[in-house]
Amino acid sequence: MMLYREIGLLHEYSPYWLLRLWGSSDRLVALSRRLYYGGGGYRGWEEKCRKMERWPLSKIEEFQLKGIQKLVRHCYENVPYYSRLFKKLGLLPSDIRCLEDLEKLPVLTKNDVLDHYPEFFARNMSKSWKYHQQTSGTTGRPAMFYRDEGAAAAFIGSCDYFGMMSPNEMRKTRALIFSRWAIWSLLYRRYNPIFSRFSPVTGGVYVSDLPLGDSTFELCARYIKKFNIQRIYGFPSAVYAFAKYVERKNLSTNIKAILCGSEILYEGQRSVIEKAFGCEVFDWYTSSECVVNACECEKHAGLHITPFSVVNIDPSKVGKAVGRIVFTSMASYLMPLLRYTAGDVGSITYKRCACGRSYPRLRRIEGRTNDFVILPNGQYIHPVKFYMYPVEIKGIEDIYFLQHEDYSMDISVVKEKGVDKRELAQIIGRRFSKTTRGVLPFSVRFTDAIRRSSKKYRIVDTKVVSDLNMPRKRG
Ligand SMILES: [Zn+2]
């Protein structure tokens, strides 16, 4: 039984003094976390992550294989979709003798899940009192992704482990969280007023990531002081925008570490953020289905993947060393997803990291594949080119590129105060022609605030259908 909704409501409606009291007792926080996540299993996973981090890779894979074999047997016996799939492929659970054998199964996308939705639930488990999150596919059919206690424990345990991994023991300090974050954001479904309450369960002060602007950042800065906040979690683009504000206002904060996730973190963004706050930025990768969790260590040389999920690369879509990232969580039994992809592209290194940890590392995550801008000849342009505009062109507060089906591009710009519109439009135009080799028609439009079609704080969206772009709902 996962009481996240009930505890979320208590957080939402309790006065701050009560929440502070609640958060000041370690035992009370531990109890609320157990109720919230449906048990204390996350502590076991945190322990495992720490214990196994220096094991030889072969021993880690042995551990994973055992978990996967057990899960596959469960899928075969209890999950209709997989019973059928295994029969169709002429496979038995005993055919999965090593982790590579998983590749006998096809890659699963969100749309596959939506097409066969009821068949993904284990017949021997109940859906009630489980964590679920709404999502939609190409046709916009809504569906709930369900996570049971085991899946939540693995995910939260590895989040806690990342807190331990940081030299600053981030977990013990308070956080400013730009919300819509996995399980935690569910605490705060209502984004009005902008600031929600403090949550004793996560130690976080939540702020809605949209709309962003000076008034939001002013409040962020005030809350950082008031709550003695020492860490920040958020989308890189949101944290970057906040960093620019901090820089512009010449503010000093006591931030010790920043975790960026849910979209690509570019080096240009990282250096601006690190300079503004005077601390390290850690890149974090996860999926809203909670089937993978990977985070940078202090060496910042790729993202260590925690062992509850087996991750590999499906190169058939992109290239030899780089491909779609495919993952299987061994901890998810209610709605298991074998070889699931969220469409992100990247590579993996299995070499031991300079930090001494042996967990494989995700590298070169190229972002949601639909972020690539497509040229009429089928070539594509990496979104990093566009993310760099506000970093490298002075006077841009916010920018958004929307490519239409006919390849033309709408560029929406929020300019900084006192900047000449015509001049800025010319600079952007020249740069855009260069980036796109002059083959894309475009228009630059100034606005006070940007309305994005996607929920994530993207800079680039394309409506052109291409192999590289995952099918999705049009905004
Ligand atoms: Zn490392």
UniProtKB/TrEMBL annotation:
It comes from the Bacteria. Coiled coil: none annotated. Gene3D superfamilies: N-terminal domain of ligase-like. InterPro entries: ANL_N_sf, CapK_Type1_Caps_Biosynth. This is Coenzyme F390 synthetase.
